[in-house]
Design a protein that fits this description.
alpha+beta, five-stranded antiparallel sheet, globular, 2 domains, single chain, DUF6070, seven-stranded antiparallel sheet, Short-chain isoprenyl diphosphate synthase
Length: 424
């Protein structure tokens, strides 16, 4: 449940069937008394018609009835600000999840690597089969929030058209459910891949993603579960760094030759991975002319060196150490100093323990925008250490077209190749 704190949500998925036992539940609240004004969060979303929003509201209240006793009995943490909601304890959220499972509700689990997986995919299978037969179909999804409410999605296929509707259920200060944010948006395409991923493209982007959806139009939901051992490898070694803002996983390199690896752009990721804290630009001196912040050498080296088998002099040479400042240059990740590559998600498909004590992971880079399970494949080798830490040893691109490898150039301008020097 700790990963719920990171994502601020917990996810559930329900298939809308007329035979579902949950349909026979009588809500204890009058829908007309629970509805609040809309608060649109989807870019370009349309307001639902009253008939559809009324049906969704009733359904949300029925779902809330399934666990209202658990919610009211749950331990809640008072918010720091008066206008915020009280959060529900992780233990009680697990009880709510169990109650929903007991009632036959399908559940999605957040993986912790910015993806989520359907735990019991029977409902999705029915949904997919009906669509394949060109029959109308619906699939509803709810995502529990850390506050005990949920976000509601209804994927629909009617007369050849695809869309989903959205609503948000919250518990007010008196313990009554309120349904709000009724809206809908079209889906341009959806695809169930060979590796068990549901990839879909929204007509509009997402302004404030709440659940398994991410910013932008291109979305991913895992249907086939990832083996836990492989998922844990991903969470430990890959997801904390991922594919954006650095070149650790998108270039070929191997110790002791680190010439092609950029350490400056790894700083904030490895600081979070190693210490659990974020790098705050305001804590460091800023040079307006270059656009660089300057990180004291002792701090920079304390973050980077534990993750690589290299010396401080090697790092100074590789990372543009400024002797006069006794510091390293660094720039915050932003749209003006990075290339707009598609979003990628790591999928560890194999692992191998080597005789020298290292571990090699084979990783597919899932790309929803290109509708593929593996835009490219790479092998990452790490060295687990006795103290519980580890070192990155090498990375090799093993499959994929050259044009599919993300474009990368360093954020620090003076480190760039000439062709990218003036990009921003």
């Amino acid at each position: 449940m700790k990963k719920l704190k990171i994502l601020s949500i917990f996810l559930c998925l329900v298939f809308l069937l007329s035979s579902c036992s949950a349909q026979n539940i009588t809500p204890q609240y009058n829908p007309s008394e629970t509805r609040s004004s809309p608060d649109f969060r989807l870019l370009g979303a349309e307001k639902l018609d009253d008939e559809t929003s009324g049906k969704i509201e009733k359904r949300c209240l029925k779902i809330a009835d399934l666990y209202q006793s658990q919610y009211h009995a749950a331990k809640k943490k008072k918010p720091e600000l008066s206008y915020e909601q009280s959060s529900v304890s992780d233990t009680d959220l697990e009880k709510i999840k169990a109650a929903l499972l007991e009632e036959g509700i399908s559940v999605i689990d957040a993986n912790g690597d910015e993806t989520s997986t359907l735990l019991n995919p029977e409902s999705f299978s029915d949904f997919r089969d009906n669509i394949s037969a060109q029959q109308d179909a619906e699939l509803e999804a709810i995502a529990l929030s850390e506050y005990g409410g949920f976000y509601y999605y209804l994927f629909s296929y009617h007369s050849g058209k695809r869309y989903f509707a959205y609503a948000n259920l919250e518990w007010d200060n008196t313990g009554r459910p309120k349904v709000k944010d009724f809206q809908k948006t079209s889906i341009d395409s959806w695809l169930y891949t060979e590796n068990g991923n549901f990839i879909y493209t929204r007509t509009t982007g997402c302004a404030t993603p709440h659940v398994f959806e991410k910013m932008g139009r291109y979305q991913l939901l895992r249907i086939k579960p990832v083996p836990d051992a492989l998922l844990q490898y991903s969470l430990a070694y890959i997801a904390p760094v991922s594919y954006k803002g650095n070149n650790l996983l998108i270039s070929d390199w191997s110790e002791p030759d680190f010439n092609s690896l950029n350490f400056n752009d790894l700083l904030e990721y490895l600081k979070k991975l190693g210490t659990g804290s974020y790098l705050s630009p305001k804590d460091y001196p800023f040079d307006k002319q270059s656009g660089n912040f300057y990180i004291p050498s002792s701090e920079f080296e304390a973050v980077i060196l534990p993750f690589f088998n290299m010396t401080a002099p090697q790092l100074k040479k590789a990372a543009s150490y400024d002797e006069d400042r006794n510091a390293y240059p660094w720039q915050e990740y932003k749209g003006t100093n990075t290339y707009p590559n598609p979003t990628l998600y790591p999928n560890v498909i194999a692992s191998q323990k080597n005789s020298d004590g290292t571990l090699t992971l084979t990783v597919d880079a899932i790309c929803p925008e290109k509708e593929t399970d593996a835009l490219f494949t790479h092998k990452l080798t790490v060295r687990p250490l006795e103290d519980g830490g580890f070192q990155y040893v090498s990375n090799t691109i093993t499959a994929g077209n050259e044009e599919d490898i993300p474009v990368y150039f360093p954020r620090v301008r003076e480190q760039r190749d000439e062709k990218f020097r003036d990009y921003w």
